[in-house]
Design goal:
By secondary structure, this protein is α/β, with parallel strands linked by helices. 33% of the residues lie in helices and 11% in strands. The chain is built from 13 helices and ten strands. The strands form two sheets. An eight-stranded parallel barrel has the order 1-2-3-6-7-8-9-10, surrounded by five helices. Helix 6 runs parallel beside helix 8. The longest helix is centred in the middle third of the chain and has 23 residues.
Length: 423
């Protein structure tokens, strides 16, 4: 899914004339010793087999690769993984109302043989290594291509076709339908109630990213449910708001200790669009995706927000330091973890990422900001590849010593790292 985002970013760069990355007079703080508490996460993406599992691998090979991934991240002193369990109305776990993901055994609905539960296995092995596991869901995406004939007969798009609209060749849940919101909440509660996860996590896919010439076909739902709204755009934002609050309330009611966080697109809104926005000139979540991520943290619906600030320091359209500062001023005393673009290291589009010190310098800026508590890297394979020696720099310098995840005092008093096997 982040690969799709990378294409979007490339398109933005093209529109802007593919402006070369700039560095400005930003002062990089001196290296600070490892804090005792810091969130150090990584996304483990299963969609399209980005990180795990390898295509056409056996159950034993899947287990061995996942153990290798966890061992490597433990060696880097990471303390959390965002494990993608629901890429497209499918499942990487057995206790689900949705079919097994096609990216597990090669065909949607195919049970792993010999049977095992990947999420259960991942949780147990992560906890043995002192690593939190946050179950990562995509709430609205139902397909990643238009090969609908390959979908399982019990896929939700076939059971309730009236719940979806097709946009850009993909089927997406219609966020304006109350029954859709109820269903998504129940899907997430299947995991909350049946698995010992430490967090529930969602990324930036809400209403779909714009596709030229495409129209969201939700006029009928708007006519039925949008009575109090004179503008369909406000109604769409409200639909997403309703879902986020429902998930927050439900998760914390069922298991008060579980963390709920979202990783939105890095720009909430540009100052040119909204006086409360950031000093940036790029795509945004508020107007572009109808996702009011700032509201979710202001209302206290989230325990952490994890914006994807996937640009370099000094970038003229969306400078990393400007966005770090903006988000830190909008955390409402909840946790702020910064999504960092390990996948961009040594790329051509933004030349700054050819500089070995770009991401380490971003870590220094994050640590200097008292309202930021850590980082999450996209993605697992990017750290494993150790491009430009970045993972070595984590192990030898920035993450040389272990750190505990920062406490969330507003949650249940039971400590998050409560298991004797953790540390």
């Amino acid at each position: 899914m982040h690969q799709l985002r990378a294409l979007i970013l490339i398109s933005i760069a093209a529109i802007a004339g593919r402006a070369k990355a700039q560095t400005d007079s930003t002062t990089i703080p001196k290296y600070q010793a490892d804090p005792k508490r810091e969130f150090r996460g990584v996304w483990v993406a299963t969609v399209a087999n980005i990180d795990w599992p390898s295509p056409q691998s056996t159950v034993d090979q899947q287990k061995q690769k996942l153990l290798s991934i966890l061992d490597q991240h433990q060696h880097t002193n990471l303390n959390a993984i965002m494990f993608q369990v629901r890429p497209a109305a499918d499942a990487f776990y057995g206790k689900s109302r949705e079919p097994w993901s096609k990216w597990l055994m090669g065909k949607q609905g195919q049970v792993p043989v010999p049977f095992y539960d990947p999420l259960e296995f991942a949780i147990a092995e992560a906890h043995k290594r002192g690593i939190e596991l946050h179950a990562w869901f995509n709430p609205y995406r139902a397909t990643t291509d238009n090969k609908y004939s390959a979908l399982s007969k019990d896929h939700i798009t076939k059971v309730h076709p009236e719940w979806f609209f097709t946009y850009g060749g993909l089927k997406t849940f219609n966020p304006g339908l109350p029954e859709v919101r109820d269903y998504i909440v129940q899907v997430i509660l299947d995991v909350v109630d049946n698995y010992d996860v430490d967090g529930i996590h969602m990324d930036d896919y809400f209403y779909p990213y714009a596709v030229a010439g495409q129209k969201i076909n939700d006029a009928e739902a708007y006519e039925q449910y949008g009575g109090e709204f004179s503008d369909i755009r406000d109604w769409r934002r409200d639909n997403v708001n309703k879902l986020i609050k429902m998930i927050s309330d439900s998760v914390h009611t069922h298991k008060p200790r579980i963390k709920f966080g979202i990783s939105p697109f890095g720009i909430w809104a540009n100052k040119s669009q909204n006086p409360e926005g950031s000093d940036t000139r790029g795509g945004d979540s508020y107007y572009g995706l109808y996702a009011d991520s700032r509201k979710w943290i202001k209302e206290g619906w989230l325990d952490y927000i994890n914006p994807q600030i996937y640009w370099n320091m000094g970038y003229r359209l969306a400078a990393f330091e400007n966005l770090l500062s903006w988000w830190s001023e909008n955390t409402n005393n909840r946790h702020l973890y910064i999504g960092q673009a390990a996948y961009r290291i040594n790329e051509r589009v933004l030349a700054a990422f050819k500089r070995a010190g770009e991401l380490p310098d971003q870590i220094k800026l994050i640590r200097e900001n008292p309202r930021a508590q850590g980082s999450v890297f996209f993605s697992s394979q990017s750290l494993t590849d150790n491009k430009l020696g970045f993972t070595d720099s984590l192990r030898q310098t920035y993450y040389k010593y272990p750190a505990l995840p920062p406490p969330m005092l507003w949650l249940d008093s039971v400590p998050q790292m409560r298991r004797k096997t953790y540390w």
